[in-house]
Design goal:
heterodimer, A: nine-stranded mixed β-sheet, five-stranded antiparallel β-sheet, B: five-stranded antiparallel β-sheet
Chain lengths: 418, 948
């Protein structure tokens, strides 16, 4: 199973190591550094590397590499999932996953890693179990700890560890009982230069924030569950009920969690909220080119498109951009060759337009590659797939909780080719 | 307050400071000190010196402090084994603690201390913990058995822990079951045949029950374990599948993939006509698609596995092409994998979309990706016939972009397209030829050369194009050289008249100047083919090639079956069987899919073999296998020529030219020159006699009349006595002795065949290997009656000099194969070079003088012939018998100088100056020849003739 873990920063320094079996010299990472060097961009480092005696399985997240060393045949997905769980836990504990925060909390991180894995087998990865054993640092607690000498390590067996519902601890109490759900959909799409949709799908997620006393048993039903092509659930969801009635029935974890992920890919159901008219060209003669982009609403279900933003990775030869935006601001980063046009709200009466000239390195040949546009946007109060929650009920407890469902549509990987 | 404070050091010396703090009375200070130690440890600093001080802090009721000390112990116990013993008591005591958390912590930590002395103490507490009333302790203890096994496997077996562990599979708590399975799986990896996980329907049932209730990680262990089970029948298979399918909706992708593995494997058992089979197929697609929206690292592993799944069961994802479309910000490793799967899924239904996408990718930035995309277009053309035309036009569009690497890739794939659809798209050749100059990669050059050779008859300037490549022949890579050789031979066979020189050149480059055995062998094969039987050569080289098959990169079916059983593992990522690379598993069982016996369904195993060979090999493998067999049979020993190539010897070259000329005649004249069937099973050289051979007798007569100057009698040709060529020992009782004679211009090989074996010998046949002067049997070996034991028989074999040429060492060496009813035997013998001296070898005086001057001095060699007691006239007469003609004689200061000439069958003239001094038994001879290699032979011949 998982033998060792190395945390490596952007620059390639190992700043934390943890071994669950015998100690493996950090020189094993040299193979990784070699691959990193070769890949140029950190995103392109292959996640599974073979060395003469070990396998290196890594993820790249928040500008950090989580590199695990395994010695025997292990499902690589298991390792990758676990590494993401480590990153999630660190984020959950300290607010973000960064080198400085990990260094500031190095002992806690170390204790956490020790709790999460035993001999390379996952031990406790549920946030609520971990939090019972190692309490997250808060300012109040550290003050109290220093005064009383008490520690932030729990000395009781976490209740969730062994119950058939490990995600929930017993004896939860709240004065305000509330259950909020966010239905968030991301549109992944590729639109070709003529405006035709090449590919489109929706990645949906239902994020929950549940603070309910006792052992509530919730069930959620949808108006149109047949929309969903594929679903994956938090372990708390009873799969049989879903199979038979298309209802989500579950005893929720305490706090924030992801209830389900879903996937809508039948293309006729995927609506593309905006259209993009674009023209980026480079002249055969002379070191310059022209850019003209207009964005307009397509199918927005009567809502306003907000936080509209266009990102373009320009060819290497583009030196600068001299453009005029009718709305919003644009910036061109010379180092990364990224042009960002931040538009904001989309006004259907007055369509935002960005046009002007691009200047190229003199003498450079006409760029061969066409830059792709990446679109960011948000639409509040609507799930673009049309998914709607019809009912949310609670059994098992007597009080009346506050309930709420919010919808949000975002652009995921929304690309327009030129 | 953050932990970074633990890193601050004081000037006094960190270790010293810490030591003081660790021994402090104040609990809080102690704890802070341990934290500092741990902090140093995490960044790889060595704090092992503090071992005794830290261990002293162990006996505490503060759980956090205890845990910290344990962390420290795990890291450093190994380096301080004696000190670690100090901790044992506390461990043993903690294993009895009332708090299950502490019991579990103690047993867990003890297992992590990899010190032999400690493990002895561990056994008792571990035994107790495995039977602990608290499942948390049991599940921790289960993992501890695996740890202990890693340290001391024998101990674990002796103590019976393995059996206890097996019992835990039936534990009431699913988490304990999952951990027991995980521990057993890990142990089983080092004991491939131990049958530790003895799976039977009862245990399977327990595992399936636990599957629903344990953690996500536990589910992975259980699913991976289930995958090793072989269900008894399709009903059991189906019931397991039914209970596993809900796992496909798990949020953890590793659980999903492990479930896919179980389903893919057990599906084999299900009859295909079962409704449930179809349902299952439908259920598999969505989770696989969902995996592709996860993080890129997960996508990568998923894609590698999907690659296997679509090869095994393409129907699962056939409608999901679009999810594999590449986004520009996908990491490169994801892009390449997606592309691979797109081609696998390409079909007539979706080819238009796929092509549009591929064309889009071909304009991206990343060179590797662009190349692969261009190649993919070619693969589509080969896979989906209806799309071929569109693919070709797409490729032409891409060639027009003039982006160098795009053009090169396009040419490589167009070559494959030609192989798949011959005589369909040749109109594009002209466009391809325009880009000849820009090709700098071997593969592209080789492809282009292949195209030119294959379609030489349609390309007007094919010879010029190929010639342009020939200039830098030695700087080309092997594949280009091989291709160039083949292409020129093809060209020659198609347009023989204009390309003789070219083919001569390439054959000599390949055979004489190259160190590469493949190239040399191929060159020799062509050369021999062309010279022995040009018609056969045409059939062989221009044979119709098998069409290229569509999938050249499919995984071999048995490997695929094995890999399907390993979905989700490292093996599936590398597409290699686990035994091939996993070091940790010391011997892995090979897993095989067991398909349902009743349905008789066989896996569609695409024919990969025929496509694996590229265009090159088929051109040298003739359809008439026996011809090749004969050729190879003849190749008695590999050519060992080390001297200069025959191109430097004009005569030799001339001979070779003659050969090709002869071959050419028969080539042009249809099958007139075709080899007569010999009935012996040996391939035979053309029987045609060269023109130069036509009038030996008249030549001889001329000479007779011309002898006047010499005076004396003509003596007969010197005939060396017979010597044993093939001893009976080496030839299963057949002894051959023989000699060579030249009589009236006919060379004969005279042999005595002696049967020293106990059985009758019959069916004799003879064949020569190529030799320096093209000696070859002019007819079959005439031994009409079988040779009975102890009988010997005389045989004379007339020889011609129009056989294939290869320089031998020594020059007059002849390798012979003799076949009889028993076997084929090989021997080599040397013939006197005078056999080859023609009867018209007397040169005109003027010509002699001019030629003598003309031949450069470095071609002159001098030899001494000792102990020869003939006078110059006698010598001259004797030599004349061997067709060495004296042209003039001069006497200077008592020394006779004889000027002599001789002409070899291949047209080489040798001029000689023989100095004979009266009373001196030592002659001096100077030989001048354009091919100085023959001088040594000629000298030897002089010596033998004069002394006998």
């Amino acid at each position: 199973m998982i033998h060792s873990l190395f945390l490596i920063n952007h620059a390639g320094d190992i700043f934390l190591e943890k071994h669950w079996k015998s100690v493996i010299s950090r020189s094993v990472c040299d193979y990784f550094f070699e691959a990193k060097e070769k890949a140029v961009e950190p995103e392109n480092v292959p996640p599974v590397l073979q060395t003469p005696h070990h396998y290196l399985i890594s993820i790249y997240r928040d500008k950090l590499f989580f590199l695990s060393v395994v010695q025997t045949e292990v499902p690589p997905l298991f390792v990758i999932e676990f590494l993401h769980r480590v990153a999630d836990t660190i984020q959950d504990y300290f607010g973000e996953c960064s080198e400085s925060l990990i260094n500031d909390n190095v002992v806690t991180v170390y204790e956490l890693l020790e709790e999460m894995l035993d001999n390379g087998f996952p031990l406790a990865t549920e946030s609520n179990v971990l939090k019972e054993m190692i309490r997250p640092p808060t300012i109040l607690r550290s003050v109290v700890n220093t005064l009383t000498g008490s520690s932030n390590v729990g000395d009781k067996l976490p209740t969730g560890q062994l119950s058939s519902i490990p995600w929930r601890r017993a004896g939860v109490k709240y004065t305000n009982n509330e259950a909020y759900f966010d239905v968030i959909e991301e549109i992944d799409a590729i639109v070709d230069k003529s405006g035709m949709t090449v590919f489109a799908e929706i990645q949906g997620v239902i994020e929950a924030s549940v603070r309910l006393t006792g052992m509530p048993d919730l069930s959620m039903t949808f108006m149109n569950p047949s929309l969903l092509d594929d679903v994956s659930f938090h372990p708390c969801v009873r799969f049989k009920r879903w199979e038979s009635e298309r209802a989500l029935s579950f005893i929720p974890p305490d706090g924030n969690f992801t209830l389900m992920n879903y996937h809508v890919s039948s293309q006729n159901l995927v609506t593309i909220p905006v259209y993009v008219k674009q023209n980026i060209c480079f002249f055969e003669t002379g070191p310059c080119g022209r850019l003209d982009i207009t964005i307009g609403p397509k199918q927005t279900m009567g809502k306003t498109v907000e936080a509209l933003m266009v990102t373009i990775h320009m060819p290497k030869a583009v030196l600068s951009a001299n453009l005029t935006a009718t709305q919003g601001n644009y910036t061109y980063d010379l180092a990364t060759k990224v042009l960002v046009w931040d538009i904001g709200k989309l006004n259907p009466q007055k369509l935002p337009n960005l046009r002007g000239s691009l200047s190229l390195q003199s003498g450079a040949p006409k760029p061969e590659d066409n830059p792709s546009l990446n679109i960011d946007l948000k639409i509040q109060q609507v799930a673009i797939s049309g998914l709607k929650v019809s009912r949310l009920e609670m059994n098992g407890e007597k009080y009346k909780p506050f309930k709420g469902v919010k919808y949000l549509t975002k652009a995921g990987n929304f690309q327009v080719r030129t | 307050m953050t932990d970074s404070k633990y890193f601050t050091t004081t000037k006094k010396g960190e270790i010293f400071e810490l030591k003081a703090e660790l021994n402090s009375d104040k609990k809080e200070k102690k704890k802070e000190a341990v934290k500092k130690v741990i902090a140093s440890m995490t960044v790889g600093k060595d704090v092992s010196a503090l071992f005794p001080d830290v261990v002293n802090c162990m006996q505490t009721d503060n759980l956090e402090l205890k845990k910290l000390v344990y962390l420290y112990l795990m890291n450093y116990a190994k380096s301080q084994p004696d000190m670690a013993i100090m901790a044992v008591n506390t461990f043993v005591k903690d294993c009895e603690d009332l708090n299950p958390l502490i019991r579990a912590l103690a047993v867990r930590t003890m297992g992590c201390i990899r010190v032999d002395k400690i493990t002895e103490y561990l056994c008792e507490p571990l035994r107790k913990c495995l039977k602990d009333e608290d499942p948390y302790v049991r599940k921790t203890a289960a993992v501890c058995v695996a740890k202990l096994h890693d340290i001391n496997a024998q101990l674990v077996e002796d103590q019976g822990f393995l059996d206890t562990l097996k019992d835990l599979i039936s534990d009431s708590n699913p988490m304990v079951v999952a951990n027991a399975v995980a521990a057993l799986s890990e142990i089983a990896e080092s004991h491939p045949n131990s049958n530790l996980l003895d799976l039977n329907p009862q245990t399977i049932n327990k595992l399936l029950t636990a599957l629903n209730e344990c953690t996500e990680w536990g589910q992975i262990f259980i699913l991976d374990c289930l995958a090793n089970y072989s269900p008894r029948d399709d009903r059991e298979s189906q019931s397991i599948c039914e209970r596993v399918t809900p796992r496909l909706s798990h949020a953890n992708s590793a659980v999903v993939l492990s479930a896919v593995k179980v389903l893919m494997k057990f599906m084999e058992m299900l009859p295909k006509d079962l409704d449930y089979y179809g349902t299952l197929l439908k259920k598999l697609a969505p989770p696989l698609v969902t995996l592709l929206s996860a993080e890129p690292e997960l996508q990568y592993v998923a894609l590698r596995n999907i690659n296997l799944i679509v090869q095994r069961r393409p129907e699962i994802l056939k409608h999901e092409m679009k999810v594999f479309f590449v986004k520009y910000n996908d990491p490169i490793y994801v892009k390449l994998e997606k592309l691979d799967i797109m081609i696998r899924l390409a079909s007539q239904a979706n080819i238009a979309q796929v092509l549009a996408e591929l064309k889009e990718y071909a304009t991206e930035v990343d060179v590797d990706f662009v190349r692969k995309a261009v190649r993919a277009i070619g693969r589509c053309a080969i896979k989906v016939e209806q799309s071929a035309e569109r693919c070709v036009s797409t490729l032409l569009d891409l060639i027009q972009t003039k982006v160098n690497y795009v053009v090169q890739e396009a040419i490589v794939v167009i070559k494959d397209i030609f192989r798949k659809y011959p005589n369909k798209y040749e109109s594009v050749i002209a466009t391809l030829c325009e880009h000849l100059e820009s090709l700098d990669e071997p593969e592209a050059r080789a492809a282009m050369i292949w195209i030119v050779g294959e379609y030489a008859e349609r390309i007007d300037n094919a010879d010029e194009l190929l010639e342009s490549f020939l200039e830098g022949f030695h700087d080309e890579s092997t594949q280009v050289q091989l291709q160039l050789l083949t292409a020129i031979v093809k060209l020659f066979l198609k347009k023989p008249t204009e390309t003789q020189e070219l083919v001569q050149q390439v054959l000599s480059l390949a055979t004489q100047d190259s160190d590469n055995p493949d190239l040399r062998d191929r060159g020799y094969i062509y050369w021999r083919l062309l010279s022995t039987d040009p018609v056969a050569a045409k059939e062989v080289v221009l044979a119709e090639k098998p069409l290229i098959s569509e999938e050249t990169d499919l995984i071999e079916p048995t490997l695929l079956e094995e890999l399907i059983c390993h979905i989700g593992t490292l093996a599936s990522v590398y597409h290699k069987p686990p035994s091939a690379f996993v070091e940790g598993s010391r011997g892995v069982q090979h897993k095989r899919l067991t398909s349902s016996a009743g349905s008789g369904e066989s896996v569609e195993s695409p024919d990969t073999g025929s496509a694996a060979v590229s265009e090159a090999p088929p051109t040298v493998i003739p359809s008439q296998g026996d011809l090749l067999g004969d050729l190879l049979n003849l190749d008695l020993t590999p050519p060992t020529s080390t001297g200069p190539p025959p191109t430097t010897a004009p005569g030799m070259q001339l001979g070779a030219m003659d050969l090709l000329g002869g071959g050419l005649d028969s080539l042009l004249g249809g099958d007139i020159g075709g080899s007569p069937a010999m009935g012996t099973g040996f391939g035979a050289p053309p029987a045609a006699m060269p023109a130069s051979f036509n009038a030996p007798i008249s030549g001889g007569l001329d000479d007779l009349f011309d002898l006047g100057g010499g005076g004396g009698l003509t003596m007969g040709t010197y005939i060396p006595p017979k010597s044993v060529w093939l001893p009976a020992m080496k030839a299963k009782g057949l002894e051959i002795s023989g000699t060579f004679v030249r009589r009236s211009g006919v060379i004969q090989m005279e042999m005595t065949l002696n049967n020293k074996a106990m059985s009758v010998m019959s069916d004799f046949a003879i064949q020569f290997n190529r030799n320096s002067f093209g000696l070859a049997p002019a007819g079959p070996l005439q031994i009409l009656t079988p040779i009975s034991p102890n009988q010997s028989i005389e045989a004379a074999l007339p020889l011609s000099t129009v056989g294939p040429v290869m320089k031998m060492e020594p020059l007059n060496n002849l390798q012979v194969a003799v076949k009889n009813n028993i076997d084929v035997f090989y021997f080599s013998c040397q013939y006197p070079i005078s056999m080859l001296f023609l009867e018209d070898g007397k040169m005109e005086r003027q010509v002699f003088l001019a030629t003598w001057k003309d031949i450069p001095n470095e071609n002159e060699s001098q030899f001494q012939i000792k102990d020869c007691h003939l006078n110059s006239d006698a010598a001259s007469n004797k030599l004349q018998g061997s067709n060495i003609f004296t042209i003039a004689k001069r006497t200077v200061e008592g020394q006779d100088m004889l000027y002599q000439s001789m002409k070899l069958t291949n047209g080489i003239w040798v001029l000689a100056e023989l100095r004979v001094q009266a009373g001196n038994p030592n002659y001096t001879i100077s030989l001048k020849c354009r091919a100085p290699e023959v001088s040594q032979c000629v000298f030897q011949n002089y010596e033998t003739v004069l002394k006998n």
